[in-house]
Amino acid sequence: MKNIAELIPGDVATVYGKVSKLKTKKGFRSKIPMAEGEIEDLSGKIKITWFNQAYLAKMLHDGDSVKLTGKVTKGKKRNLSS
After folding, report:
1. Minimal CA–CA distance to 46: which of 6, 57, 60, 10?
2. In the prediction, which pLDDT does 21 show?
3. Distance CA 18, CA 23 (A)
4. CB–CB of 73/81 below 8 Å?
5. Which of 23, 33, 39, 66 is most deeply packed, by most CB within 10 A?
6. Which residues pair with 23 in a beta bridge?
7. What is the pLDDT of residue 77?
8. H helix and E strand count, the chain
9. CA distance 69 to 10
10. 4 close to 39: Cβ distance less than 8 angstroms
């Protein structure tokens, strides 16, 4: 388990926090369904993306506390995402 501020691109990490800004969409080229949102803990906030699991954005609600595990990548705007 790590705080969001401690995440390093390339790591597989587990983060506890609250989700927000959940939405579903399809990939621009591949058209695969995906869900996007943000997770926030006391140390920061990052963007999250689930590929082929768009239903998660409908099951979770803004403000829900969750435990997420995934690979950390560096986004286009220097953001970290899981």
Report:
1. 6
2. 93
3. 15
4. yes
5. 39
6. 36
7. 57
8. 1, 6
9. 13
10. yes
One digit per residue, pLDDT tens: the chain, 82 residues?
Answer: 888 888 888 889 899 999 999 999 888 788 889 899 999 999 889 999 888 888 888 889 899 999 999 998 887 655 455 4
Exposure string over 9-31, b if 16+ CB within 10 A, otherwise e: eeeebebebebeebebeeeeeee
Query: Cα–Cα distances in Å, from 9 out to 16, 37, 53, 72, 76?
Result: 18, 18, 22, 5, 12
Per the DSSP assignment, residues forming a β-bridge with 67 are 16
As given in the structure block, the two tokens for residue 35 are 């869900």
Six token digits for residue 72? 């950390």
> What is the per-residue DSSP string for 10-28?
T-EEEEEEEEEEEEEEE-T
Q: Chain-centre distance of CA 44, in angstroms?
A: 13
Query: Could you count the other beta carbons within 10 Å of the beta carbon of residue 61?
Result: 10
In sequence order, the 6+-apart residues with CB closer than 8 A to the CB of 25 are 33, 34, 35, 36, 54
